[in-house]
Amino acid sequence: RQGWLSRLKAGLARTGSSIAQVFTGTQIDDTLYEELESALLMADAGVKATEHLLADLKRRVKEAKATDPAQVKGLLVDAVADLLAPLEAALTIGRHPTTVMMVVGVNGAGKTTSIGKLTRYLAEHDAKVLLAAADTFRAAAREQLSVWAGRNQVEIVSQEGGDPAAVSFDAVNAGRARGCDVVIADTAGRLPTQLHLMEELKKIKRVITKADAGAPHEVLLVVDGNTGQNALAQVKAFDDALGLTGLVVTKLDGTAKGGVLAAIALWARERAAGPVPVYFIGVGEKLEDLQTFSAREFAQALLD
Ligand code: GDP
């Protein structure tokens, strides 16, 4: 655990150094708050989350009667940790004979890699996993997923040039018939231009429900944490179309835009259906580089 935390710290150093810099002075004054505002905006926390954090921090400073900027830094850790807390939740399996997960996200976000890591995580928890290559448009995506299946020694349902919804349907049925604990469907992140991604994903979701009335039990979005506010736009768009149940935020091992988690948290707080948790964060390219999300650890790593 130590290893990944130091990678997260090193990664977030690019986000956090300009924020931490704000607290090196001797006074708590308007300049400090103005500098903090710029630093949070630069870290891609977005205008709303930045305003929220500043107001919350000022309240905490007043309450604590703080006089030392170093103390304010500690209070900001508390404010960030509290803002991010609703994003904490563990992905649970075992509530259904076969938990069906549909994984979505734009190309390059780290979807296939995250599925590979997630498969390993589930296998370590003694779950029998079946993968479904429902991105039938890209041969490379299918091949990459079967490499991960091989590495994790799990079965895969894949069909060259097949219909993504049909592959998903078959995989759910196969998973149930074979007594699998989890079926994970990898989906396309981009389609040939004449087709609409969201329509295709909605169709996959509908067809999965046909195969198993309660499924998909999870609709997970993989977003690249390095894309900042763009990641938030993706979260909103995929949620509108599909109703997300969880997020995986990748590439936090080397980003200057880690503040986007604050923006996602603020959005999640105001979401009518309740917050969408961040089940995992990606902190590297290797199998073990998928970690559960802790608001306080993240806040501390950010401002270390
Ligand atoms: P997909 O198109 O969404 O399936 O994305 P891929 O899984 O192919 O990942 C795209 C690239 O991002 C690959 O080079 C991955 O190794 C890399 N990647 C994925 N997750 C992480 C992460 O958490 N950290 C880093 N540094 N790289 C990652």
UniProtKB/TrEMBL annotation:
Belongs to the GTP-binding SRP family. FtsY subfamily. GTP binds at residues 105-112, 186-190, 250-253. GO terms for cellular component: cytoplasm; plasma membrane. It comes from Ideonella dechloratans. Its EC number is 3.6.5.4. It comes from the Bacteria. It is a peripheral membrane protein. The gene is ftsY. The lineage of its organism: Bacteria, Pseudomonadati, Pseudomonadota, Betaproteobacteria, Burkholderiales. Part of the signal recognition particle protein translocation system, which is composed of SRP and FtsY. SRP is a ribonucleoprotein composed of Ffh and a 4.5S RNA molecule. GO terms for molecular function: GTP binding; GTPase activity; signal recognition particle binding. The keyword Membrane applies. The chain holds residues 60 to 363 of 363 of the full protein. It is found in: Cell membrane; Cytoplasm. Its main location: membrane. It catalyses: GTP + H2O = GDP + phosphate + H(+). Keywords: Cell membrane, Cytoplasm, GTP-binding, Hydrolase, Membrane, Nucleotide-binding, Receptor. Involved in targeting and insertion of nascent membrane proteins into the cytoplasmic membrane. Acts as a receptor for the complex formed by the signal recognition particle (SRP) and the ribosome-nascent chain (RNC). Interaction with SRP-RNC leads to the transfer of the RNC complex to the Sec translocase for insertion into the membrane, the hydrolysis of GTP by both Ffh and FtsY, and the dissociation of the SRP-FtsY complex into the individual components. This is Signal recognition particle receptor FtsY. Residues 277-290 form the SRP54-type proteins GTP-binding domain. GO terms for biological process: SRP-dependent cotranslational protein targeting to membrane.
